[in-house]
Amino acid sequence: MTTEAVRYFSTELLLWYKANKRDLPWRMNRDPYRVWVSEIMLQQTRVDTVIPYYERFMAQFPTAAALAEAPEPEVLKCWEGLGYYSRARNLQAGAREVLSLHGGTVPDDKAAVAALRGVGPYTTGAIMSIAFNRPEPAVDGNVMRVLSRYFCLEEDIAKPATRVNIEKLAASLIPEGEAGDFNQALMELGALVCTPKSPGCLTCPVMMHCEGRMAGKAQVLPIKTKAKPPRPETRIAALITGSGSHAGKLLVRQRPESGLLAQMWELPHVLSPTPAAPKRRGRAKAAAGADQEIAAGLLGLDAGPIEGGETSAGVTARAAAFDSAASPMDRHGAMADYLSRTLFAEDGLLVRPSAWWGETEHVFSHIVWDMQVFQAEFGFWQNSGVSDSHVETIAAAESKSGYGDDGEASARYRWIGPEEMRTLAFPNVFVRILQDYWRDMD
Q1: Is 167 annotated in the active site?
Q2: Could you tell me the pTM of the whole model?
Q3: Eight-state DSSP code of residue 83
Q4: Whether 372 contacts 238, CB under 8 Å
Q5: Which end of the chain is more exposed for a tag (fewer CB within 10 A), N or C?
Q6: Neighbour tally for 171: CB within 10 Å
Q7: Active-site choice (4, 12, 39, 154)
Q8: Region 71-95: what's the mean pLDDT?
């Protein structure tokens, strides 16, 4: 590509951006903390979705020091609904580093910014260019798409070497003194005009010298190797209703301190032995006749002993039952049985599933949860535990403790109503289920 075409690209893109840029809350000033928060929120999330979260987050945590000093549950609750919660944890960890190492002010230093928790090459480039106007590239998916098309680059953008080359190219295009606006212009063009599936070539400010368009390859560029599809998992969850002092409330639990969705709250649920085949979007309510009462052990399966988990024979039998179920009711019955037995084996919690409530789907980067949800009645807590030398079945434990005896709840479980839900952070899938449940109860 000629020098004239390169100069044309930078000049025309900047002119277009200054005349057409969106009025976004993080563009009100160049505060590096505000830029940082916006860039973390915008990762894998649409602008329209981010705006209300960003405004609420900045109102609650207006400075890096305020974020650093906030209790983590408050941060997660404010982030609730955005997903990818490790972003919130890393952002707070980075804010604590800014407070301890830099007096609460994001430094005008590339190496120091890059060393912050959760800050990678793109975010470093965005902060340094937008907040401090340093000539650093900020290459995200939008930028790689725009440059791949304009320069007709046919290397696989999923390869690290290709990204490095595009970063070098982007850096060479930055006009002197215009780093912040230029990088935002590249992102804006990719978001509004040079879109993934239907690029608006006729309205593009730099179409005249776009080599991808002239070669007829705008629709196929950039080249990107398809990622491995996420693994399907079926999760069987329980809406466990209380009685007496817990009437009108549901039983929820807190996830472990580390791992996926660490320390967030959820409905009690178990991993099914077999994944469900169909993919679902949103809650699908029970079909006519399928919302009847489901007694645990509907299929008359031989559960086998409970020793902190199913026996291999029990799991195999239940998996076979799931696969061979002739109707939704049969399958739901097998799921209800497995849910009841597994919660008892894992946590000493006995419940009686009474009806299939619905289903929903939640997509992570590497897993798809098919969530099958059952209404259930609370039974009791088996406080004494189950040892290798003293194996009890659910039926024996039930006759011993008495159904409906509250017992001593596990420390990670809690009874909540709608008000308490507003103080706890839940993953999106459980937010949807709980909101639907409370709405149905009104």
Answers
A1: no
A2: 0.78
A3: -
A4: no
A5: C
A6: 16
A7: 39
A8: 94
